[in-house]
């Protein structure tokens, strides 16, 4: 059985790493390479890197910067933004990415999924669907959530699967930056229907939010962005919650926190004097 994955989704706008809120407001964070370097050391399983300016501004992902970013990470890197043809995919893979994430292009050239899959393998293709509720049902949108796509989401996922996609990233627009948790009920339904792995993104507000979807649904991975930006070891803390709730997750970092306690908000509690006295500190050799 495959282990569940925790993915850091990093959004680039105007060359800066940003926090996204409801696909409308963006808070600048800083240079992406520093966050990529730190997060890849914090036990995250993968990184998704998307430049949201590329498609609306009709430009390509900056390959020079991508090559630089790739040097700072040792985990699989998925890249999206401005990908229009198979030559774009070749350049992005050559620059250091392991997978590509495609979105709006499939509504203009659906066969592009098969092109990538036939050239690089299905494991290279992540199809991102931006979704939000309309009349109590989730609908697919493009153009940064402005344009409704007239497709049944369940049937469209089957079409994507048959075309050769390896994974589907469901990006919940309504929950972007809202910190109100993942939509477990919908994820349960969609995972039953999908024959390929589903990644869910949108809604993580506290580390305990990463537990319920893995327990209640067959989701393969959970992705988040904002929650990881300002707290050191944030991905390790998220995995500690997952581990303590019986979720089969990789713990590769010494600072696993898997035996530590948390408050109701999911924050790490300090060790008391009794527990501190039990710690045996060992010096590391050079």
CA-to-CA gap between the ends? Answer: 38 Å
How do the helices and strands follow one another from N- to C-terminus?
EEEHEHEHEHEEEHEHEHEHH
Per DSSP, what share of the residues sits in E-state strands of 2 or more residues?
15-25%
Largest sheet: 8 strands, parallel, barrel
Q: Strand tally, please?
A: 12
CATH architectural category: Alpha-Beta Barrel
* Radius of gyration using CA atoms only: 19 Å
Average pLDDT figure:
84
Number of helices: 9
Shape: globular
CATH class: Alpha Beta
Fraction of helical residues: 25-40%
**What count of structural domains?**
1
Q: Pairing-aware structural class of the strands and helices?
A: alpha/beta
CATH superfamily: Aldolase class I
Low-confidence stretches: none
**Which fold does the CATH topology refer to?**
TIM Barrel
Write out the strand line-up for the largest beta sheet, numbering strands in chain order: 1-4-5-6-7-10-11-12
Identify the notable features of this structure and list them briefly:
alpha/beta; 286 residues; 12 strands; eight-stranded parallel beta barrel; 27% helix; 9 helices; TIM Barrel
Structure description:
The protein has 286 residues and is of the alpha/beta class. It has one domain: Aldolase class I (TIM Barrel, Alpha-Beta Barrel), CATH 3.20.20.70. Helices cover 27% and strands 24% of the residues. It is built from nine helices and twelve strands. It has helices at 32-40, 63-70, 86-94, 112-120, 153-163, 184-193, 212-216, 234-244, 273-278; strands at 5-13, 16-21, 25-30, 46-51, 77-80, 99-102, 125-134, 137-142, 147-149, 167-172, 198-201, 221-224. It has an eight-stranded parallel beta barrel with strand order 1-4-5-6-7-10-11-12, surrounded by six helices. It is globular, with a radius of gyration of 19 Å. The model has no long low-confidence stretch (mean pLDDT 84).
């Amino acid at each position: 059985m495959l282990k569940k994955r925790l993915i850091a989704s990093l959004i680039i706008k105007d060359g800066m790493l940003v926090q996204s809120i409801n696909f409308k407001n963006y808070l600048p964070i800083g240079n992406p390479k520093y966050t990529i370097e730190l997060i890849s050391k914090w036990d995250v399983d993968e990184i998704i890197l998307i430049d949201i300016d590329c498609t609306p501004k009709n430009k390509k992902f900056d390959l020079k910067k991508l090559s630089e970013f790739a040097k700072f990470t040792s985990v699989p890197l998925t890249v999206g933004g401005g990908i229009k043809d198979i030559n774009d995919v070749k350049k992005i893979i050559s620059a250091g990415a392991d997978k590509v994430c495609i979105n709006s292009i499939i509504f203009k050239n659906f066969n592009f999924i098969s092109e990538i899959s036939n050239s690089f393998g299905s494991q290279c293709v992540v199809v991102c669907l931006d979704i939000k509720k309309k009349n109590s049902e989730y609908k697919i949108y493009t153009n940064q959530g402005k344009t409704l796509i007239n497709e049944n989401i369940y049937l469209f996922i089957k079409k994507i699967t048959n075309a050769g996609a390896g994974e589907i990233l469901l990006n919940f627009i309504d929950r972007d930056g809202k910190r109100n948790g993942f939509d477990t009920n919908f994820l349960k339904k969609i995972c039953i229907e999908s024959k390929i792995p589903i990644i869910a993104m949108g809604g993580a507000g506290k580390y305990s939010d990463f537990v319920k979807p893995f327990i209640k649904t067959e989701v393969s991975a959970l992705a988040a962005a904002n929650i990881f930006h300002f707290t050191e070891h944030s991905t390790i803390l998220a995995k500690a919650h997952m581990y303590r709730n019986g979720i089969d997750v990789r713990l590769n970092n010494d600072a696993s926190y898997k035996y530590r306690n948390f408050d109701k908000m999911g924050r790490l509690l300090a060790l008391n004097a009794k527990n501190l006295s039990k710690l045996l500190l060992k010096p590391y050799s050079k």
